[in-house]
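Hello,

Our lab assistant flagged a job as stuck in the queue for most of the afternoon. It eventually completed. Since we weren't sure the result was trustworthy after the delay, we are filing this so someone can double-check. Below is the sequence as submitted and the structure that was eventually returned. Let us know if re-running is recommended.
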Amino acid sequence: MVQSLTGPDWWKVLTVLVLMFVNWGIETRKWQLLIYDVERISFLKAFRAVFSGQAFAINTVNNVGEYVGRVMYLHEGNRLRAVSLTIVGSMAQIITTFAIGLIGLLFMKNTILGSSGNFKGFSVFWIDGMMWLLLLITIVLLLFYYSLSWVTKIVERLPFMSRFVYLIEKLEQLHWKELTRILILSVIRYVVFVVQYLLLLQVFKVEADAWSVCWMVCVMFLILAIVPSIALAELGLRGEVSIQLLGLLSGNTLGIVFSATGIWMINRVMPAVAGSLFILGVRLFKK
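-- returned structure --
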C-alpha cells in the first residue's frame, strides 16, 4: 500500500484529492443555484455549508442529516424553506445515479457476465427484473422532477397543507431550464466520482479494462444508493459490493478494498471532519 501511494502513480492520488474539491464544488454550485431565490450567499459560505452537511450526514441513514448542516448557514426564517429546494438537488443526483446505473447493469449483463459464461451467483432473472423496475422508477422520478411546479400547485390546494405552503412555494418558480442545469451539474459530478474511483484502482494495481471498470463502478454506485446505510458504517458495504462487482474483472481483492477505503476516506470522512470544524463557528440562532 505504501509503495502504491509513493510510487510513480502518486500524482493520481493527488488528482483524486483535487477532484474531491471539484466534486463538492459542483454540489455547492447546485445548492447555491437552487436557493438563489430564498437567500443569496457567497460560494465560499455555500461550500462551508455543504461540508457541514456532510458532518451531519455521516451519522444518518442515506445522508438525511445533510439538510440540517446546510441550512444552518441561512437566516433563521429561510431555513425550512431551503430544505425542499435542497431535496431537489438530491433528486437530480439520484436520477443521474439510477439512469447511468441502469446502463451499467445492461453492460454488465451483456458484456461481462454474458461473455464469461460464468455468472458467479448473479441471476439473469433478478438482473432483468431490477433493470425493468429501475427503468420504471427512473422515468417516474424524471417526470416528477420536471413537474415540480405543477405538483406543488396541487399540493397547495389541499386544506391540511395551507399552514405549510410557504415551505414549498419556491418550487413553483423552478423553470425547466434551471432543472436541466441542475441535472447537468449532477451528471458532471457523477463523472468526477467515476474518474476518482478509476484512478485509485490504477494506483492499487487493479488491472482491468478501464471501460469495463467504469461501468461496474456505476453499478456499485447504484447499489449504494438503493441500500439504506449510514455513511459512518458504509465502508463495509462499499468494500463488499466492490469485491463482488470488480472481482468479476480482477483478482486483486486487496487493491479493490484499498480503493474503496480510499474513496470513502477522501469523499466522505475528510469533508465530514472539515465540516465539523466549520460548525464550531456557526451561530445557530440570533441572540
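-- support follow-up --
The delay was a queue issue, not a problem with the job. The result is valid. Residues 2-279 form one domain. The two ends are 51 Å apart (CA to CA).
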